[in-house]
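Ticket #4471: complex job returned nothing on first submit. Input attached below:
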Amino acid sequence: MKKTYWKKNIRYITILLSLWFVVSFGCGILFVEQLNTIQIGGFKLGFWFAQQGSIFGFVAIIFTYIYLMNKLDQTQNK
Amino acid sequence: MELQYWIWIAVGLSFSLYIGIAIWSRAGSTKEFYVAGGGVHPIANGMATAADWMSAASFISMAGIISFGGYDGSVYLMGWTGGYVLLALLLAPYLRKFGKFTVPDFIGDRYYSNTARSVAVFCALIVSFTYIAGQMRGVGVVFSRYLEVDIVTGVLIGMGIVLFYAVLGGMKGITYTQVAQYCVLIFAFMVPAIYISFLVTGNVIPQLGFGSSGADGVYLLDKLDGLHRELGFHEYTSGSKSMLDVFCITMALMVGTAGLPHVIVRFFTVKKVSDARKSAGWALLFIAILYTTAPAIAVFSRTNLIETVSNQPYEDMPEWFDKWETTGLLGFTDKNEDGLIQYTAEPTTNELTVDADIMVLANPEIAQLPNWVIALLAAGALAAALSTAAGLLLVISSAVSHDLLKKMVMPNISDKGELIAARIAATGAVCLAGYFGINPPGFVAATVALAFGLAASSFFPAILLGIFSKRINKEGAISGMLVGVTLMLFYMLKFKFGWFGGGTKADWWFGISPEGFGSIAMIANFVVTLIISSKTPAPSKDIQELVANIRKP
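Support reply: We reran it on our side without changes. The output follows.
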C-alpha cells in the first residue's frame, strides 16, 4: 500500500516537473527565438512565455499537484 | 490635501496596524515563537510567505530592472517564481511532516551529525545577513525619500517597529503582520498599475494591456522594439545575454529560492502536510499577481519615458522631471548643447541617466495620479521591506537560540530560557542589521546574487537528497555542502571582489556570470554527495526509518 503511494507520488512529480521545465526553460529560454516568430496579439510567443506564460504555468502546476495529492491521500485513508 | 500629510497618514495607519497585531499575537512558548504554534491557515500562510518573499527590491526595483533589460529581465521573473514549484513538489510537504522548527534542525537530524548542523547554521546566517542589510537600507531610503527625514532616522524607525513585533510576537507576530503587509503592498502596487494600463492602452488589466496597442493602433511591444532600434539599444523583446547564461541564472535563482531558509521555515507553520502544499500554491498565486504586473509596468513606463524625453527640448520637460532630477535619480547633461535630450545606447552621445527605481516610484506622478496613491506607494514599499526583514530576523534568532544554544551548547535549557535567548538573539540581530543599514557595506548589491547562489549550492541538494534517497549519509552530505559553498564563494570572490587574481567577463568559466554560477556549484554539490555516499557506509536503520516516515502523508 505504502509503496504504491510513494511510486504514484514520484510519477506525478516527474510529469509535473517536466512541464515546469518546458514552460520556463523550454519555451522561455531554449526555444525562445523559434517561438518569437509566432505572434499572438501584441506578444511574440517566446517573450510572452518568458515574462508571463511561465508564471501562469507554475501556478497551474502547483494547484494540479495539490489536487492530485489530495485525491491520493484520500485513497490512503480508506 | 498636501502630499506630506497623506504620506504621514498612510504610514502612520499601517504602522499602528502592525503594532496592534503584535500586541494581540504575543508568543508564549518557543513553538509559538519559532513556528507560530503550527496552526496557521494555508491561505494566511500563503499571504505571509508572499510578503516575506517580496522584498523592497521586488517592489521598487524589479519593474525598473526589467524595463532597462527587456527580455534579459525575464531571469528574475521566472527565477523568483519557479522556485515555488520546487518547494511545493519536492521540499515543503516533507519538511512539514518532519515537524521541527528550522532548516538546520532537518539537516542535523537527517544526517545525524552536529557537524552537518553547524555547516547549515553557518550557511543560514550568511544568507540571511546579506539579505537583511539590504532590507534595512531599503527602509531608510523609502523614509528619506518620502518623509524627508535622513536615512539614519529612517533606519532607526524601521528597526524600532520590526524589533517591537518580531521580539514580542516571534513567528506568530510576524505571520499576522505579514498578512496585513501583503494586503498593503499589493494594493499599493496594483492601483497605479491598473490606472496606467488604462491610460496607455484602454485596458484595465495590466497583463492584457501589456500585449495591446496604444492610441495610435501600434502594438506597444512592437513600438518599443522600434524605438529601441532607433536609439541603438538591443531590441526589447530579445536579450543581450547568452542563452547559456540566461539558463544558468534562472536555474540558480529558482533553486536558490527553494533553498532560502526564511522561505522554507514558513512551511513549518501550517497544521498538516496537505496544508504545506496548499500554502505553497497560494503563496505563488499571491506573488504572481505582482510578478505578472511588473513586466507590464516596465513596458508602459519605458515607452512613456522614451516618448516623453527623446529628442525633446529640455525646457519643455514636465514637472516630475525636475523633481526627480533633484533627487539624483534622473540626470541630464547637454553634451552637444542643442537644448534637446538625446537618449541613446552610445555612452559618448547619451545625455540622460535614469535610475531603475524611478520606474515604480515616479509612475503615479507621470500618470498624474492623486496624492493619496503616492502615499499608498510609500506605505507599500515600507511594508515590503519590513516584512522581509522580519522573516529573516526570525531565521537568524532561531539559528542562534535553537540550533546553536539548545541543540549544541546547552541541551538542558528550559523552554522559557530558550524563549528569552531567542528574544535576545532577535534584538541583537536587529541592531546588527540596523548598523549595516546605516553603514551599508559596499558589497550589499553584489551579495544578493551570492545569497541565492549559496542557498542553491548548499541547502537544496542536502535537503532534496535527504528526502528522496535513504542511502545518502552524513559523509556525502557534509562534503557536498562544503564543496558547493566553497566553489560558490571562490567564484564570487574572484569575479566580484577581484580576489585570487580577479578576472573579467572574458575569463568567466564557460561564459557563466557569477549570478548564474550557483547552478554549477549546485551540480558539483550533487556529484560530490552522491560519489562520497556510495563509497561510505549507509546510514543506520533509524535514519532510514525517519526518511520512510516523512514520506508518508
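The interface with chain A takes residues 66, 71, 73-74, 77-78, 81-82, 84-85, 88-90, 93, 207, 210-213, 219-222, 237-238, 243, 246-247, 250-251, 254, 274, 277-278, 280-281, 284-285, 288, 291-292, 295, 551-553 of chain B (CB under 8 Å). Closing as resolved unless it happens again.
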